[in-house]
Design goal:
The chain has 12 helices and 19 strands. It is an alpha/beta fold. The chain is globular, with a radius of gyration of 22 Å.
Length: 396
């Protein structure tokens, strides 16, 4: 008997599929785990991994340490401001969107916002916007947090700023702008925060990843510290230094220059966060697809389900059958646009109309497929809330 499967099956007995849900009991425990892992450090919420304003509000109501938001577009930041949020960093550089979103109006209205820059061209574009709108626009400098090894780029391709000299050159450029203010520094160590180091049946690869991570952590701490100290010595009064992600909380908060650590995926805990050596959060977000065929004794074909994650194509980007335990995708079809075959030879009786509960590989991308999230607590549906998509929004 699969008690977890039956728990959710009974909770959603009257709900037509497909649907997505968040288990609030697990979500809240994950939030408490994040706070514990972060020590006394303030936590910045990565909105791209949540994409639901009511759940962002729930986190901020749970603890004042969830004090800021890392948004992923200017339009999203404006939407969040209109929802009552404040203290928002737009994590990626924006171009035409900076003019069309109305974000300068939000700054002029008193909202605490910062737009990302990593080159003089970014600064010049935002300076022109500030001049046109008569607004001093706060900006955040993105510092590269990847490691370069022979024949291996360990990390993601983001900023071109890797040295204190480059950071100081951009700071001097910003200082010469009448309508910009350097408000903070951000560095995202993606290869630490978002790369699993303990997947099963990958012993040699896991050992290599752990070794590279430890080497990279030391290197990046020195780089971030050198950049921040150089900027401060040059007279830059930084309001914040942002770093990290769910998988790097412990190493990020150990850096003395960091003032806030970003966390996003750790609240939903999607499939790509199952295998880390330092932590394990609880799966809190999932979706259900309905069995509509049984072409063979242990094969159950469900309607829909092909919600594939972004990034380099691979089996790890497919949604993962979660409940009943032991269910798996077929090698040939995977998760399909209109049908998803599931192989299951366990003891839980399945029939047409029964649900298969799936987990997305990533966190917030699930919300791009569903207008609402059903919220579950103590064995019942307690609410249904809009995702960004349910608000009629598609930011990227």
């Amino acid at each position: 008997m699969d008690q977890h499967y039956r728990y959710y099956r009974d909770v959603f007995a009257e709900r037509p599929m497909p649907f997505a849900f968040v288990d609030l009991d697990r979500f809240d425990r994950n939030a408490d785990t994040v706070l514990r892992r972060a020590g006394r450090m303030p936590v910045c919420l990565a909105s791209k991994s949540i994409r639901c304003a009511p759940l962002l509000k729930r986190l901020q109501a749970r603890s004042p340490r969830f004090h800021s938001i890392l948004a992923y577009s200017a339009c999203e930041a404006v939407f969040l401001c209109n929802q009552g949020f404040d203290n928002i960093i737009v994590a990626y550089p924006v171009w035409s969107e900076a003019r069309t979103s109305g974000i300068a109006d939000m700054v002029r209205a008193g909202k605490t916002l910062a737009l990302m820059v990593d080159c003089a061209e970014h600064a010049d574009y935002l300076e022109a916007l500030g001049r046109e709108t008569q607004t001093v626009i706060p900006v955040c400098m993105d510092v590269d947090m990847s490691s370069a090894y022979p024949r291996l780029h360990f990390g993601v391709l983001r900023s071109g700023i890797t040295t204190p000299a480059q950071a100081l050159a951009l700071w001097e450029h910003i200082r010469g702008c009448d309508h910009l203010r350097l408000d903070g520094v951000m560095g995202y160590e993606a290869q630490i925060a978002g790369v699993q180091d303990a997947p099963p049946a990958s012993f040699l690869k896991n050992q290599l990843v752990r070794t590279l991570k430890q080497r990279s952590i030391r290197e990046l701490a020195a780089r971030r510290g050198a950049v921040v100290h150089a900027l401060r010595e040059a007279g830059c009064g930084l309001r914040f230094v942002n770093g990290g992600g769910t998988g790097s909380i412990e190493s990020t908060i150990a850096e003395e220059v960091v003032t806030e650590v970003t966390v996003g995926s750790g609240f939903y805990s999607p499939a790509l966060f199952d295998h880390y050596t330092q932590f394990r959060h609880e799966p809190a977000a999932a979706f259900a697809i309905e069995i509509v065929r049984q072409p063979a004794p242990t094969t159950y074909t469900c309607q829909g389900g092909g919600y594939v994650a972004s990034g380099a194509a691979g089996a790890d980007k497919l949604p993962r059958p979660w409940l009943p335990e032991g269910a798996k995708l077929t090698a040939n079809e995977g998760a399909g646009e209109v049908q998803t075959p599931i192989i299951y030879a366990g003891t839980e009786p399945l029939s047409l109309g029964a649900p298969i509960f799936m987990r997305h590989a990533k966190a917030g991308e699930l919300c791009e497929r569903f207008n609402t999230l059903l919220l579950v607590s103590n064995g019942e549906i307690v609410d249904e809330v809009n995702t960004y998509r349910g608000e009629g929004l598609c930011f990227l």
